[in-house]
Write a structure and sequence with these properties.
homodimer; about 300 residues; 7-stranded mixed beta sheet; 10 helices; globular
Chain lengths: ~300, ~300
C-alpha cells in the first residue's frame, strides 16, 4: 500500500568540458521498480557505483544526442553489463548513428553481448511516444541543437485509487483490495454491494511527470508540451549575460530555463549542463529564481522527487 | 643544472569492470618537458584534472589495444583539447581501428578538430621503434591478448655528462656550459685547452627507462626486451590461484608479473590492471614480493620515479 517511488538521481550535469569534479550529463530515474538512464556521459558507470545504483537493474536508456558529453559513457556501461553477466533485455533509444558507434566498438573489442540490446533509433522531428511499460510512457520533446537532439517526457500511467486505510474493514482479501484499486465496488457472491468503492478509496493522486530538455536553444513554444509537468530539467549552460553566446551555440541560459518553467507552469525546475566557466553555480540559481521560484541546481548525487 | 624529471603518474589501474572507486587503465608519463599518456580509459580527462595534470601539455598518446577499458576516455579527451583551444599537434599511436572510431565520433558530433591529430596505426607483430623526440625513444613490446595488443618501452636518449658543480669556474658562459654538456673540452680562441671536459664533469647518469605491459598473458620470452628497465608496469589481473583463468582469458597473475621482473632483472615492478574481485589488493602485493622484492601496487594518484 506504499506509494511507488519516483526518484530522479543526478549523476552528472557538466557541459562539454568537465570541471571542478563535475561529470558529464547522466541521470537515473526510478519509477516503481523500473529504472531508466537518461543520457550517459563519460564515467556514467563509475557514477552509478558511487551513488549505489545498480547497472543491471536499468531497463531502458535514453540518449538525447550524439555530442560526446551525453553518450561517451554508454559503450563502457554496456560492456560492464555484459561482463557482469546480464541476460535481460535492455532497451536503448537514441539517434540512428548510435547503433553504428556501438557496432564498431563491439567489433574491435571482439565482443558479442550476452544480452539482447534492443536499439530503437529516434526520429526527432515531432513529439512521438517511444516507450511504454507498466508504470510510464515516454514521449520525445523536439529540441534544437547543433546536431539532431531530443528531450524526453516521462509520465506515469495507470494511477490507482488510494485506499482510505482508516476505513478499510480488517479482513479484506488481496483479491478484494485489487478490485478496490481498479475502482470496483466490493460485492458478495450474490452480487450485492458490500462497500461502494468511493467509501473505501480516495481519488488517485495525480500522474507524476518528468521532462528532460538538454541540449537546446531556448524554445518557448515547448511550453505547451511541458504544461504542468512536476519536474522540468532544462539546460542552463550560461547566465543571461552570455545570452548571445547561448543562442549562437544553440544553448540556453538560466533565465531562459526559468522563463520556460514559468510559461509552462511546471512545479519544479532543475538547472543543469553547467559551463566550465562557472565554478560557483549560485549565480545561475539566483538568476533563475528571480523569474521562477521553485528552482534547484541539479548537482550530482542529488535526488529529486515530485512535491507531494 | 637540475636533473630532468621522469615521473609516472597512475590515473587508473582497474581491469574491465571498474570497482571500489578505481578507474580504468590510464597513465601519465613526464620526461623532461614532454608529456605522454599511456592508454586512456573512461574518465581519463576527469582523472587528469583530479591529479592536476594538464591535457594541453600532452604531446603523444599511446593506446595498447581496443578493449574499452584501455581507450574509451580518448574521444572525450580529444574533444576537450579541441574545446579548450588546442592548436598544437598531438601524436596518437594505436591499433588501426582506433582511427575509424575517432572518425565516426567526430562525424556524428559534427566536429572538426582545430589541431592536427597525427594518427600512427600500430603494427604489433614485432618490436619496432615508433616514436622519438628530444628526450625519449618509444618501442613497442609484443604482447599476446584476445585482440591485437602492444606494450610500450620508453627509454631516455642523449644523456648529457653531469657538471661537477664544486669545480666549475665562476664565470663560464652559457655557450661554454653547453660545450661541457656535449662532452667537449673548453678552449680559448687560440684553441688552447683551458679545461679538460672530464675535470669539470662526471659521466652521464644511466638512461632511464619505463616499460608498460598490459594486457597480456605471461610471456617469459619478453625478459630479453625488458632487460634491466628501471620500471616495469605489468598487468596482474589475478592471483596465482586463478592462474588457469588468467591463461584462459589471456591475462597474467601477480606471481607471473614478478617472475618476469626477476628474469628481466628490472629495478622496480608495478602491479596493475586489478580484477574487480579484489577489494583489498595487498594479497597481490604479498604474492609478488615473495618472488621479486622491489614491487609496488600501481594505485591511482601514485607517482613513481626510477630509483636514484
Amino acid at each position: 500500500l506504499i506509494d511507488l517511488p519516483f526518484e530522479l538521481t543526478i549523476l552528472g550535469s557538466s557541459s562539454a568540458i568537465p570541471a571542478y569534479g563535475r561529470h558529464h550529463s547522466t541521470q537515473h530515474l526510478r519509477v516503481g521498480n523500473k529504472n531508466y538512464l537518461i543520457d550517459c556521459g563519460e564515467a556514467a558507470q563509475n557514477q552509478l557505483q558511487r551513488f549505489k545504483l545498480k547497472p543491471q537493474r536499468i531497463d531502458a536508456i535514453f540518449i538525447s544526442h550524439l555530442h560526446g558529453d551525453h553518450y561517451l559513457g554508454l559503450v563502457g556501461l554496456l560492456s560492464s553489463m555484459h561482463l557482469l553477466g546480464r541476460k535481460r533485455k535492455l532497451d536503448l533509444f537514441g539517434p540512428l548513428g548510435l547503433g553504428n558507434v556501438i557496432t564498431l566498438h563491439l567489433k574491435y573489442s571482439d565482443t558479442v553481448l550476452r544480452y539482447p540490446l534492443d536499439f530503437h533509433p529516434l526520429d526527432v522531428e515531432t513529439q512521438v511516444q517511444i516507450y511504454e511499460d507498466k508504470y510510464v510512457t515516454v514521449k520525445t520533446i523536439p529540441l534544437k541543437h547543433r546536431v539532431p537532439c531530443t528531450g524526453f517526457l516521462f509520465r506515469e500511467k495507470q494511477i490507482e485509487p488510494r485506499l482510505r486505510k482508516q476505513r478499510l474493514p480488517a479482513n479484506l482479501s488481496i483479491e478484494q483490495i485489487r478490485k478496490l484499486k481498479k475502482g470496483e465496488d466490493l460485492v458478495n457472491p450474490q452480487g450485492d454491494i458490500l462497500y461502494k468503492n468511493r467509501e473505501l478509496t480516495m481519488p488517485p493522486r495525480k500522474s507524476r511527470s518528468y521532462a528532460y530538455c538538454s541540449d537546446t536553444v531556448y524554445l518557448p513554444e515547448n511550453a505547451r508540451l511541458l504544461k504542468s509537468v512536476d519536474i522540468l530539467y532544462h539546460e542552463a549552460t550560461f547566465m543571461t549575460e552570455k545570452e548571445l553566446r547561448a543562442s549562437h551555440t544553440l544553448h540556453a541560459t538560466a533565465g531562459q530555463a526559468a522563463e520556460l518553467a514559468k510559461k509552462a507552469k511546471v512545479n519544479k525546475l532543475l538547472l543543469g549542463h553547467f559551463s566550465a566557466r562557472y565554478k560557483d553555480l549560485s549565480p545561475l540559481l539566483r538568476e533563475a529564481s528571480g523569474i521562477f521560484k521553485n528552482v534547484y541546481l541539479a548537482e550530482e548525487g542529488q535526488v529529486f522527487m515530485p512535491d507531494e
